[in-house]
Amino acid sequence: MIVWTHVLIRLTLAALFGAAIGLERERKNWAAGLRTHMLVCVGAALAMMVSAYGFMDILGKDNITLDPSRVAAQVISGIGFIGAGTILFLRQGIVRGLTTAAGLWTVAAIGLAAGGGMYFAASTATALAIIILWALQPLERKFSDRFKQKSLRISTVSEAKSLQIINEIFQGEKLNISSCSVDKTDGSYLITFSFKEIDKQLLAILINELQADPNVQEINWN
């Protein structure tokens, strides 16, 4: 049977590990912030201890066999429900919350390690998670901006106007268009252009011309 001092140490460390990762998420004002990560990590640590030590009083009796990993295993699958709640589908091609969901899954694993007494593994995973979430973000942005396709979304009030805009843009020079789509929603037409590359001065001219058109409702460049 585990002593109370070890219980205190493991739950406290789990709370600290979860807080370290949660602070990084809190800094960006995500829904899953400091308290969420702390609760997930502490809960996972407690589940690990219950799984390993919670059935000691009945072990050894006749016809009773237990797998101590079963409770802990359910934490990994169960955390998926919380992670799914942090994922938001904003619009076509734009999904937010995947990193937060992955962070919650990692925090649950860290909690299991802390609850199992694997302090070095839990602390190392916490340090690596902070490096991945915070320190590597500028590097990720640098590479993603270089290879990411740029998209221009234009909302118009009529089908005729959307066709006119499509013809004008396809006839333009120095526009390396990779794809084009038109969607009709709530009486308006959303045109989406994807570019492999585009001249910035030409883009500025194009957006100014579209803004001056009264039939254009919205312009979004990403």
Question: What features would you describe in this structure?
Answer:
With 222 residues, the chain is of the alpha+beta class. It has two domains: 4-144, no CATH class; 149-221, 2-Layer Sandwich (Alpha-Beta Plaits). It is 59% helix and 19% strand. The chain has eight helices and six strands; from the N terminus they run αααββαααβαββαβ. The chain has helices at 4-27, 34-53, 70-85, 98-115, 119-135, 137-147, 159-171, 200-211; strands spanning 88-91, 94-96, 150-156, 175-185, 188-198, 216-221. A four-stranded antiparallel β-sheet has the order 4-5-3-6, covered by helices on one side. Strand 1 (88-91) and strand 2 form a beta hairpin. Helix 1 (4-27) runs antiparallel to helix 4 (98-115), helix 2 runs antiparallel to helix 3 and helix 3 packs antiparallel against helix 4 (98-115). It is elongated. Belongs to the MgtC/SapB family.
Q: What's the mean pLDDT score? A: 80
Q: What is the distance, rounded to the nearest whole angstrom, between the alpha carbons of the first and last residues?
A: 57 Å
Helix content: 55-70%
Strand order of the largest sheet: 4-5-3-6
Report Rg: 26 Å
Question: Tally of extended strands?
Answer: 6
Helix-and-strand structural type: alpha+beta
Number of helices: 8
Order of helices and strands: HHHEEHHHEHEEHE
Largest sheet: 4 strands, antiparallel
How large is the share of residues in beta strands? 15-25%
Residue runs with pLDDT of under 50 for 5 or more positions:
none
Query: What number of domains?
Result: 2
Q: Which descriptor suits the 3D outline?
A: elongated
